[in-house]
Amino acid sequence: MKHLLLAALCGASLALSAAGSALAAELTPLLPPSFVTSSTVPANGDLNPYGAAFVPDGFPRFGTIAPGDLLVSNFNNAQNPQGTGNLQGKGTTIVKIVPNGTPATFFQGPARLGLSTALGVLRAGFVLVGSVPTKDGTSATIQPGSLLVINRSGSQIAEWTPTMAKINGPWDLTIFDQGDHAKVFVSNVLDGTVTRLDVSVDDGGVHLNRATKIASGYTFRSDPAALVVGPTGLAYDPQRDVLYVASTADNAIFAVFGAGNSQHDGSKGVLIYADNAHLRGPIAMTLGPNGHLFVANGDAVNADPKQPSEIVEFTPQGRFVAQLSIDPAPDGAFGIAFAQPQHEFVRFAAVDDNTNTVTVWKVPFENGGQ
Description:
3 helices; Neuraminidase; NHL repeat containing protein; mainly beta; 26 strands; signal; WD40/YVTN_repeat-like_dom_sf
């Protein structure tokens, strides 16, 4: 039987909330060896962490980030006394998380950005991040954005525009990394589509060879609180050549078969998970080392005050496994990521958009998930 990773985290959460009690003593064996909650707010004060990504093994060690580091992208700018701050679509930073300390700024771009959940790292030494900017923090002025390519020292070396990359509000991404080439899947929140970017990678950078729209038809719309909702989280299974898509406004998860090689638009794909008891506007999503899918509920759709800010674990066949709340208030869950399993443990990161923090758990795990 595959490990139920969120069940272990649920045990940890319960034990912590019942510290000093008999219940805590009973649950202590479920506690992972360590976990830490750290700030995501950099020196410039950017707020609202969205994307999360671990730097993979094999990443070059000469630079400002290294294998195992956790990166987080910020979507809002800083609050300020003049009342012109903390605007959505104005964040400009990617930070390297420093446990129990102030995060180090890995990248800071111009004020026009608004860095989204679309954050990924290529092991050859490059970071990709989506930009979905606004002029005034509202959906009325939201822009199509772009994808930025950043080197290991935190310098931008390329920008892929909507025309070049067939993108329109790059809201999330996932990467199938094959060293000197990769497939980058991007969800577009402003037109309800998914694009596959076929890229080549060398010492000089990441080169966009082809952009193909492979899925469409996901519901998208502006939202007074969430700014915009539409297709968000993506998870790719290269063994089956299946791309899983978390469609926030549809409150559902779809599977697009043949996504890695398709040359045509496959519409929404196949509905695999529509669970109103546990899905509440799914946003960021990732494929866990146990073969299960993990999705963060943004609470913009089907909200339940009794189940706020949940992360949900389910199988690719659509069977619910477990859920974990990361914040007592709604709208906190956003970016999530797994590191590569090492030494019978795996690290799992989840950002809390309400508190501008990220928690990283170290969970016991047998490679293979048996």
